[in-house]
Amino acid sequence: MPASQYITIGEFVSHDFRTTSVFSKYGIDFFCGGHRTIEEVCDKKSINHGQLLEELTEIILSTNTNAIDFNSWPLDLLVDYILKKHHRYVGAKIPAILSALDKLCQTHSGEHPELLEIKSLFEGCATDLLAHLKKEEHQLFPVIAKLEKATPADGIPCAAAVPVIADPIASLRQEHNHEAVRFRKIKILTHNYAPPADSCNTYRITYSMLQDFEQDLQEHIHIENNILFPRSIKLEQELVKRCCN
Questions:
Q1: 158 falls in which pLDDT band (50, 70, 90)?
Q2: Where are the alpha helices (DSSP H) in 62-87?
Q3: CA quadruple 73, 13, 20, 119: dihedral, nearest 10
Q4: Which residue among 12, 95, 119, 219 sits deepest, i.e. has the most Cβ atoms within 10 Å of its Cβ?
């Protein structure tokens, strides 16, 4: 993929996930802000275009046989990956992090009151994110599976040849944005997940779990926002067009 200031951040990350290290280095949101071009984000954050593109190109041109090309995957496989890797991770980690934050607040919130806000933010994330995952699993993903299985002869019944997934996807994108905002606040409150120098082991483990959770959420949102959602909308549009013609 040629390096260009006009390519979107999401396209860079979709082509090679390793480029996230560069975007993270410059504080650039690549998961919810993947629709922006390099030019847009560099102008807004006063980043040197040439330097950023040089670093991105260096990573893209380097050899990495372990890179996953999610763009080449069929939609049903991509959905299965999201369910088994990211949805399962969220379900497993939320109780553990909530328990650790509760213990941390009981012991250290007196001298570190920011812990109470961190706990409140993550509790909100847990509630909203679990509801979000259910909407994906029971409403959106089954529709995507039906679109993926539709044959050229099937198309979409003409009486129902109206796109139905754009609005739900727009709503899910907005919910992704809410979680990104929450974790930006958590990151600030934890000083980029750096516990106090004299902190106990529980402190360090809790911050490490929060950091891992955010990193998984970033990849999760990136795959959906920049790959699954656009491809699903495009597929539905193609089926509707095929039916109406």
A1: very low
A2: 75-81
A3: -70
A4: 12
Reply yes or no on whether the pLDDT at 150 is more than 90.
no
Angle between helix 114-135 and 166-189 (nearest 10):
160
Q: What is the predicted pLDDT for the residue at 33? A: 66
What is the separation of C-alpha 176 from the centre of its chain, rounded to a whole number of angstroms?
7
Rounded to 10 degrees, the C-alpha dihedral 121/126/129/135 comes to -140
d(CA 201, CA 107): 12
Please determine, for residue 18, whether its predicted confidence score (pLDDT) is greater than 90. no
What is the arithmetic mean of pLDDT over 84-90?
95
The residues, ordered by sequence, that sit 6+ positions from 193 with a Cβ below 8 Å of its Cβ are 187, 207, 208, 210, 211
d(CA 226, CA 245): 29
DSSP codes of every residue in 170-208: HHHHHHHHHHHHHHHHHHHHTTTT---TT--HHHHHHHH
Residue 37 DSSP code: B
CA pair distance 13, 218, nearest whole angstrom: 11
Q: Residues with Cβ < 8 Å from 45, sequence gap 6 or more?
A: 26, 27, 28
Q: For residues 136 and 153, what is the distance between their CA atoms, to the nearest angstrom?
A: 28
Q: Which of 103, 109, 9 is nearest to 56 (CA)?
A: 9
Count of all residues that appear for the chain in the document = 245
Q: Residue 6 and residue 17: Cα distance in Å, rounded?
A: 18
Q: What is the Cα gyration radius of the chain?
A: 20
